[in-house]
Write a structure and sequence with these properties.
alpha+beta; Nucleotide Exchange Factor Grpe, Chain A, domain 2; 4-stranded mixed beta sheet; 7 strands; rod-shaped
Length: about 475
Amino acid sequence: MTEMLADKLLDTFASTDDSSVRVQALTDLMTAKVIPKRADDARFDAGLQRWISVVNTLDAAPRDRLLAIAELIRATQQLKKRQPALIKLIQPGFGQPLPPLAVLEDSEARLNVARACAQADMPWLPTYLAASLATEAAPKPRAELMESIVSRAGTIADVLALLSKAFEGQHPQTENPADSLAKRLAKALETFRATVRASLLDAGADVGKRLDALLRTTLSSTGKPQSDDAQIELTREVALTLHDLVRSRFSLASEPQTFLALQYCRSFFAGISWPRDVQAEMDILVQDVSEALVMLGRMGVPNQDLLSRLELVCGIKERARVVASQLADRHVEIDESIRGWLRTGRLVTPIAASDVLQESLLTSIDEALGLALIEARAFKASSEAEQRLTSSLEIFDPALVGLFKGIVTQSLAMHNAIEDLAKRRGLELVGGVGDEIEFSPKYFDALGALRGTRATVRRPAIVRSSGHGAVGTVVKKGLVE
């Protein structure tokens, strides 16, 4: 471009009152790459000042104000260092919410307004950006709007709540509003998941419920989508959104409510399983839910609601049962009770025995232990014959001496073990076989009629010590005659 033509365009850019002529002049200047070379030209600044004046004139036509913002950003795309200063100059125009972004027909202009909003900081901007996104059809402005929304939010749950308010009441003026709105929501979710996946936002509380609310709130004004294409497109994006959420924020995978939105999508289809067109996305979710079940299983936590979600993503109960059983078979490190639950879907909870039943069982054990103690002490009393038997074997059969001593050693070890168990349970014996004692019906039963109060012990009584050497309750009475 000649210098003369460049000067003419700069003159037009600086002086014309016709906004369309000024837009065309800037386009020609940018096409010829004049702006970087003549950025310090006073006429270029004069043209920018005209746009700044329009932005800050609050009673100017809504379209003119938005176009002015868009042109300021476009004019400095090759001079990005100047944009922050321009944003400060148009702050008065941002003192109240801007006109609806949809009044601009050109998607590139809407993109530039979104870029300007991303550099501003006003309390009304999050709501405005969300409302603009709810009506945006072009991918680039939608991505810029979503990125600005996410960058200002505290949590993912906050973003979903903001989008729900923005989409509420939307009713496209088309032949089939429900399908149009469902497809628009699907595009919004596609942008949402890509933006959130690349962000560091915390999940926040009730993400699954917020996503479910976004779907239900949006479609409440038009009803569910009717065409197969709209149903498939929305379901696919919901599934992929859930996948990206649980992959980037794994704590969400173990929360059954995360998958509520998918339950809503399931109501679109009358068949017993998911349509083939979304099977690939469902297979991805089957893997996500499976990994969550394994993770909780390793922690010993069976989550019945999450197991139900496996059935949801599998489509049919039989497939979910096969998948869960395969998880149990592959992961032998998981507790057997959890593996059994995965195979059957039922968790067997051991019933705690009552105190009375436990005491009854212990009493029965104590009785058997007491009888073993009687035999052990009887063996101990006869162990004095060990030396005589050993001497005899050394004379008559020396080869058996070693075997005999081994038996005696093992028997004494068994005796000591029984004594130790009895001590732990507080068991004692009253009387010894052959002892003559004063008969006490509390501790003994008579084998026959007694003469007088003295009797000979045939089996000691088994009692439980109450501490400090005192005899407590009787476990099993002894026998006397």
